[in-house]
Amino acid sequence: MSGTAYLVEFAGQASSAIVNKALSILREISKEMELSRKARLANLGWTKAEKMVNSPILDVNKPIFEVTVPPRLTSDVNVSREILRVSPIDDKSLHVVITDASLPPKKCEEIALEFAKTLYEKTTGEKIDDRMIHVEKVATLSERICEHCLQVIEGFPYACKACGRTFCYDHRQPESHGCRRQPHIIEEANTQYTSSSQVESRSEEAPKIIIRRVPCG
User: Fold this and answer.
1) Which of 76, 94, 122, 159 lies in the 20 to 30 Å Cα band around 112?
2) What are phi and psi of 51, to 5 degrees?
3) Contacts of 5 (CB under 8 A, 6+ apart)
4) Confidence (pLDDT) at 57
């Protein structure tokens, strides 16, 4: 699938129930791709980028939903009708593709975050704080992939002190990769807890949604 792809994983014991209900909601608010269109999509010849692994495989036997992105999210980049393609991966994860390949990475991440947040709130009936949605490393096994441009890092990899992710030289600065987190948040997250009450408090702050950008194409 072309565009920018993400894995949206619902964490916790109720993850499978959330995904099942999310699929029911998607059937109500979106259109499921027809078999003939899924077949054409599956038959496209994609070439994997070197050393990129763990990219989800399109399964035409599973539903693929097409969801329209609210115009308010894309009006600032002059896109009027952006479509997401959403398909289940397993009992806790969804594969979400932002189909417009021209959208900047920062905007794609914003759309993915908003989609995951909205879906969670619709399925559970609960509001979710942005701090409970974590954007993690690219879903590849190689640590030498820039998480902004998704290219193999030829030289020295740079770890951003603000978000903790890995970037190439060109995208090492927070402003160049659309960094959303502040350094003090990382420092707080890395604080070591020793007492049992502190460990329990830390477990309560585990993310409810994990979003990973994946290689696409």
Assistant:
1) 159
2) 70, 5
3) 55, 56, 95, 96, 97, 98, 213, 214, 215, 216
4) 60
Range of the domain at 39: 4-131+207-214
123 in the same domain as 92: yes
| Within a domain: 137 | no
- Structural Rg of the chain based on CA atoms: 18
d(CA 41, CA 16) in angstroms, rounded, equals 27
Least Cα distance to 1 among 112, 119, 95 occurs for 95
Q: Are residues 68 and 172 in the same domain?
A: no
- pTM attached to this predicted model: 0.70
Q: From CA 165, how far away is CA 156, in angstroms rounded? A: 14
Retrieve residue 55's tokens. Answer: 């990219």
Counting every residue, how long is the chain?
217
How many domains are there within the chain? 2
Distance CA 137, CA 131 (A): 16
The amino acid that residue 38 corresponds to is K
144 vs 205, more confident: 144
Contact 171, 98 (CB under 8 A): no
Which backbone phi and psi does 97 adopt, to 5 degrees? Answer: -115, 125
Say whether both 27 and 56 belong to one domain: yes
157 falls within a domain? yes
pLDDT 10s digits, 108-132: 989 999 999 999 999 999 999 888 9
- Summarize pLDDT for 143-202 with one digit per residue, the tens: 678 888 878 888 888 888 777 778 888 888 888 877 755 444 334 433 333 333 343 343
